[in-house]
Specification:
Elements lengths: L1 H17 L7 E5 L7 E4 L9 E9 L8 E8 L6 E6 L3 E6 L2 E5 L9 E8 L4 E6 L2 E2 L3 E2 L10 E5 L18 E9 L5 H8 L16 E4 L3 E4 L4
Antiparallel strand pairs: 1-13, 1-15, 2-12, 2-14, 3-8, 3-13, 4-5, 4-12, 5-6, 6-7, 8-9, 9-10, 9-11
């Protein structure tokens, strides 16, 4: 009986550390503010990023009260290699290689929100799409390449590689459908992703996700269709 219990605990621990692979119709739930609850995502990057698109769903009440991190991609040389962040009173912030631009937008509605963010090195053009609708394009870090040895975090803002968390910047709510490509998706492709389609994400794939959950994070059914 003791051996069976020990085996069960080992299996539960393995599940919590490495998680399930297919996250279809699932979401990560961050139930409360903290500086130690987050999800680390594993990406098979082999060459510097010259472009990217990140799409995901976020469902949170925090936009009414404070700023918070949505997606944090850090390297050992640059903690804010890619940062997607909601800034209360300003809008969505995109940081690429330490440089920040602001996409003005109304306060987040109290409903699940789908966002896609893209950037390309050749032109420096960055785009933000909210629920399938584009914001005004911005430009930053033209000619830059982004590092591959990355710490990718949901739920916290990295002020250092894999750390430096502040509970006042943490996410509270649900995050799901996280996909990332090493290219800029076209407007038609982004609209298709918003409608539930996909285009073989090759950096982060929600249907074949490698992750480690830390602290108080739960996997639950999505609250959006």
């Amino acid at each position: 009986m003791e051996k069976l219990l020990w085996c069960s605990l080992v299996l539960i621990s393995f599940f919590n550390v490495f998680g399930q692979t297919d996250m279809h119709k699932k979401a990560f739930v961050f139930p409360k503010e903290s500086d130690n609850s987050y999800v680390s995502l594993k990406a098979p990057l082999k060459k510097p990023l010259k472009a990217f698109t990140v799409c995901l769903h976020i469902y949170s009440e925090l936009a009414l009260t404070r700023s918070y991190s949505i997606f944090s991609y850090a390297t050992k040389k640059q903690a804010n290699e890619i940062l997607i962040y909601w800034s209360k009173g300003r809008g969505y912030l995109l940081t690429v290689h330490g440089t920040e631009v602001v996409f003005r937008s109304p306060e987040n509605p109290l409903a699940p929100t789908h966002i896609c963010v893209s950037w390309e090195s050749d032109s420096g053009i960055a785009e933000l799409w909210i629920d399938g609708k584009p914001m005004v394009r911005k430009s930053l870090e033209k000619g830059t390449s982004l590092g591959t040895e990355a710490s990718i975090i949901l739920g916290q803002d990295q002020d250092s590689f894999g750390g430096g968390y502040d509970k006042n910047q943490s996410s509270v709510g649900d995050i799901g459908d996280v996909n990332m490509w090493d290219s800029v998706l076209s407007p038609d492709e982004i609209r298709t992703v918003h409608s539930g389609g996909t285009f073989s994400p090759n950096v982060l794939d929600w249907r074949a996700l490698k992750y480690e959950a830390h602290g108080e994070v739960f996997v639950k059914h999505q609250l959006w269709s």
